[in-house]
């Protein structure tokens, strides 16, 4: 597959040519497993098999590259790799996640994605075909929440609240 554009990428093509499969693959490798996003009745359905070939696993890898802003405020893609993320699913339903080909927990993947401002837990992380009309009809407070979730401020508010609560508990312990 060709590289995605720096500012915007549109995936177009005839019905049945694989556009949704690309998005499903990206969702899968990032750890999105809720089936209302991925078009499968169960996660094991993502393993390609037919009468002639019976596979027991599938693996998808995604390579992220660095993006820099040059002096004229243009985004340029660096050739150096930032990191490689992959996920392997077995027919049994078991998963394995990898960062730089080292086995890690799904939480480690999620924390890495948060560190680069990708919040895959945001219900609007990807807007699939048919959902754009829902976004267009949102009220102003719903759009604000969507933007806050998309840029990550909601995520950090929750982490801040949790950290403050931990500090309060620690102070109570010190006083007693």
Tell me about this structure.
The structure is a single chain. The chain is α+β, with helices and mostly antiparallel strands and 176 residues long. It has a domain at 1-118: P-loop containing nucleotide triphosphate hydrolases (Rossmann fold), CATH 3.40.50. It has five helices and four strands, in the order αββββαααα. The chain has helices at 19-30, 106-115, 132-136, 140-151, 153-175, and strands spanning 57-69, 75-90, 95-99, 102-104. It has a four-stranded antiparallel beta sheet with strand order 1-2-3-4. A hairpin with a 2-residue loop joins strand 3 (95-99) and strand 4 (102-104). The model has no long low-confidence stretch (mean pLDDT 76).
Give the secondary structure arrangement, pairings included.
Blueprint: H1 19-30, E1 57-69, E2 75-90, E3 95-99, E4 102-104, H2 106-115, H3 132-136, H4 140-151, H5 153-175
Antiparallel strand pairs: 1-2, 2-3, 3-4
